[in-house]
């Protein structure tokens, strides 16, 4: 009996003429993505262009509001029945949510109701309001108190960020698990950068290892208008980012016949 794995997507187009990679293929530098990744990306792009399940302003049509282009990823995988398919993911949030039917879930969902993050942000808001009130009074006696509150806010913010990082744990093929704090400490970072663990590539590999799917090939592409830096172009393929992803990939891929450089 075939085990149904959510988010595992069969290719629409027959893939009999496509070569399955003998070892894990991860796009790097100016390399081209594996042809199966290109096919998976084309199918996902067709979905993005025609879906009506959610609305997100990619800037591709005239819409009101802030334009937010998005990096998407596809991971070609093999299941226990030796079927070849793919998983899809997006970086950060999409349409204000972490969860959509076509995409693997986040490693840790920060948007859950009554989460420690929501409560922490509420506490920071209160601190900001207190500081503003004291500044508006503009009394000399308040300056020392303002500085004390700013120090308290900074310490609280750092503690909250570390708590976020400690909720992100990544598996590798051997089932070994490490937190973001540990992963980036091994890589020589003082702290993980903000947003680490939210990129598409790490999400995809985490889901694959959690569900005993064999990763075959991975790439990411940009969808939407480019940001001010114009680094990313609509529909163009890109390797996983170095700053946020490289240390994570070094951990999750260390049991695959591949070395991330």
Secondary-structure-derived class: alpha+beta
Helical residue percent?
Answer: 25-40%
Radius of gyration: 21 Å
Please provide the count of β strands.
8
Mean pLDDT: 88
Overall morphology? globular
Strand composition percent: 5-15%
Major beta-sheet overview: 6 strands, mixed
Stretches where pLDDT is under 50 for at least 5 consecutive residues are 256-261
Number of continuous helical runs = 6
Distance from first to last alpha carbon: 40 Å
Helix and strand element order? EEHEEHHEEHHEEH
Detailed description of the structure:
With about 260 residues, this protein is an alpha+beta fold. Helix content is about 35%, strand content about 15%. It has helices at about 35-50, 115-135, 140-165, 180-185, 200-210, 240-250; strands spanning about 10, 25, 70-80, 85-90, 170, 175-180, 215-225, 235-240. The strands form two sheets. Strands 1, 2, 3, 4, 7 and 8 form a six-stranded mixed sheet that branches. The chain has a two-stranded antiparallel sheet with strand order 5-6. Helix 2 runs antiparallel to helix 3 (about 140-165). The chain is globular, with a radius of gyration of 21 Å. About 25% of the residues are buried. Mean pLDDT is about 90; it is low at about 255-260.
């Amino acid at each position: 009996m075939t085990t149904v794995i959510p988010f595992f997507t069969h290719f629409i187009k027959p893939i009999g003429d496509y070569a399955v990679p003998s070892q894990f293929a991860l796009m790097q530098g100016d390399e081209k993505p594996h042809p199966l990744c290109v096919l998976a990306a084309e199918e996902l792009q067709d979905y993005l262009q025609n879906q009506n399940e959610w609305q997100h302003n990619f800037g591709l049509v005239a819409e009101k509001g802030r334009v937010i282009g998005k990096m998407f990823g596809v991971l070609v995988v093999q299941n226990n029945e030796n079927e070849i398919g793919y998983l899809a993911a997006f970086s950060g949030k999409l349409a204000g949510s972490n969860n959509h039917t076509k995409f693997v879930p986040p490693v840790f969902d920060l948007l859950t109701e009554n989460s420690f993050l929501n409560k922490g942000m509420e506490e920071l808001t209160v601190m900001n309001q207190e500081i503003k009130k004291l500044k508006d009074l503009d009394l000399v006696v308040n300056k020392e108190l303002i500085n004390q509150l700013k120090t308290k806010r900074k310490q609280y913010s750092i503690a909250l960020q570390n708590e976020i990082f400690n909720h992100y744990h990544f598996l590798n093929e051997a089932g070994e698990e490490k937190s973001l704090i540990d992963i980036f400490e091994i890589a020589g970072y003082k702290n993980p950068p903000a947003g680490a663990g939210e990129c598409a590539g790490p999400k995809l590999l985490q889901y694959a290892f959690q569900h005993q799917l064999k990763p075959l090939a991975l790439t990411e592409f940009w969808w939407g208008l480019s940001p001010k830096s114009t680094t990313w172009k609509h529909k163009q393929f890109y390797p996983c980012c170095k700053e946020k992803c490289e240390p994570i990939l070094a951990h999750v891929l260390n049991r695959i016949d591949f070395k991330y450089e």
